[in-house]
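SAMPLE LOG
Freezer: B-3
Tube label: C17
Construct: single chain, 324 aa
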Amino acid sequence: MTELTFGVFIPQGWKMELASIDDPQAKWAKAVEIATLAEDLGYDSLWVYDHFHNVPVPAHEAMFEAWTTLAAISQRTSRIKLGQMVGCALYREPSMLAKLTSNLDVISGGRLIWGIGAGWYEHEFDGYGYEFPSAADRIRMLRETVEIVTAMWTEPDVSYQGRHFTLDGAQCDPKPLQSPRPQVLIGGGGEQLTLRVVARLADAANFGGNPEEFAHKCDVLRDHCQAVGRDYDDIQKTWSPEVFVRESEQEIVDGGTRSFWGEPFESWRAGNLVGTPEQVAVKVEQYVQLGCTGFYPWCSDYPDTETMHLFAERVIPAVRTAVG
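STRUCTURE (predicted):
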């Protein structure tokens, strides 16, 4: 089995988790504090969202941009991997993404995980003046983006003629440090389009859902891999739920739902990692049995760090012991 990896998101403001902190510089200080804590606690990776507006609705609340955030955090950490869950392919030209990703890999000492997806938050597209194509076209643009970026990581000069993007002699130096390349993680569970791109081009796939839904997505991906002649086991399967851990069951119940969408407590709990350390460890083990080997949760009690500590100090060791 592929080695288990455990990451954690840092607070950026997307889910309004920094709203209790007034000063923007203090908000940023909290993000840095938690990023360095993640490394100190032994997490394998830290993650950021690629969004501009808050959810569930834009709220004029700070939302730190993904790539500048990771560039800054790369200089305050030394070991932990740096990923995006996931970047939006349509927010930046593929050639610019090649430059951004390559530079980040170099300045971080080879720690980039490149997460990329087709995008979905239409309000951001409208607000920032980006065209919002059909889902099919967004996924075609995702495919071309991955082809362009991975080519520019490795080839001295890249020319590309696609349906949506054209390059003529593009250069990308310095190249990423990682060999043969940084991991490409594609997010999204669209069964006939997104997962087909995953089967062809990704090193890792991130999709969510309850265990039954996760297992179904794995089966669909397996079929796509067979169709294109790809070894299904070469693709890491990952999950990025919300996590909320407390020592007692009563604290969990009394806290109620922490869903930023206002999802009812029982539904929110069922679809995420919510419970005591023992309960959460059992649920992680269930996903491991389904083939998931990368767990990258967002802590629902930010800016508090109790969940972050309990997950690192109690859940992760228990899971590693249980699965051997």
